[in-house]
Amino acid sequence: MMIIGVSLVSILPRILPIALFSRYEFPKPLKLWLSYVAPAVLGGLTALSILAPEGDIDIRINNLYIWAFIPTLVIAMKTKSLFYSLLVGIVAMALLYNFTS
Amino acid sequence: MHKEELKQGIHDSIPIVLGYLPLGVAFGVLANQVGMSIIQATMMSVLCFTGAGQYIALGVMQVGGAVFTIIVANALVNLRYLLFATSLVPYFKGQVPTAIGTLLSYGLTDETYAVAMNRYQDHPPTASYMAGLNITSHLGWISSTLLGAILGSFIGDTDRLGLNFTLPAMYICLLVFIINRKSDTIVALASALLCLLIGYLLPATMGNMFNIIIATVIAASLGVFISERE
Q: Is B38 exposed, middle or buried (0-12, 13-18, 19+ CB in 10 A)?
């Protein structure tokens, strides 16, 4: 029962817009607005995943995510490679986790 | 079916699967602890595919809350996908048949959205790419749940391996990739600040992720405002 209910409310918002809106041509201003959705969503997700990794805002010096963020951002901007960014991020986090605290 | 596109989709889903591993395993372990069977936990990941929503369900179950509460909370948490899916519509137009696009959007998550949007900046979307990306990611989520539910508390601390930083690292990188216009930077920064500010002022929005929706709506409007003045 619970699973079916949760399933419905998690699937409908994902599929309805595609199913309903694909027939229409969006007006230009709306298209422009929608083109900013992705950068905005990613900005928000990044900020939350670094500064609220456990669900609550944590802007303290011992939040390891903040420290791992720095080399990852540098590598992402320099190499433009997802692979190297992930590698550096994960290794940085593992080192921080095991050699601090 | 374009084999190359399918392969590319599967290839692009690898970091997502890696990131889901600790999250899915943890969900399986916790589900076990609140009394869900291995099959129930796995079926939930098959039918729901909503990390945040599934954790909320466990939290409510743990304190003996109502099924209705779980469903309402999940409806709120998943509302952001209305926005995500709508922003994909202009890309799909004339590229992906509506029925297939609808079906494959079952696999739309924060992560698959971020990866797909980056891909669509310079490649037209195809059903094969979407299938490779979304279905593999979903399979990763399902199998890590199964793994967690079976192994239960035998699993040690995956944080030691740094895997908990996979998804943040992916977001950072995709954010760098998606920024093309100067206004994108401003929009992303504004959204990040707003997200934190709203979450700080209204802590409830951290749980139901409404802070992301509100921040996105305001920041995207700001983007339109800026680009019209340029």
A: middle
The overall pTM is greater than 0.95: no
Mutate to test the interface with A, among B95, B195, B196 (most CBs of A within 10 A): B195
* Min distance A100 CA to chain B CA atoms (Å): 12
B139-182 per-position pLDDT tens digit:
999 999 999 999 876 766 667 778 889 889 988 998 998 898 99
3-state secondary structure B65-128: CCHHHHHHHHHHHHCHHHHHHHHHHHHHCCCCCHHHHHHHHHHCCHHHHHHHHHHHCCCCCCHH
Give B 89-148 residues with CB within 8 A of chain A: 89-90, 92-93, 98, 101-103, 105-106, 108, 110, 113-114, 117
Tokens of B202: 């209204």
Residue B200 forms contact with A (CB below 8 Å)? yes
Is the ipTM above a cut-off of 0.85? yes
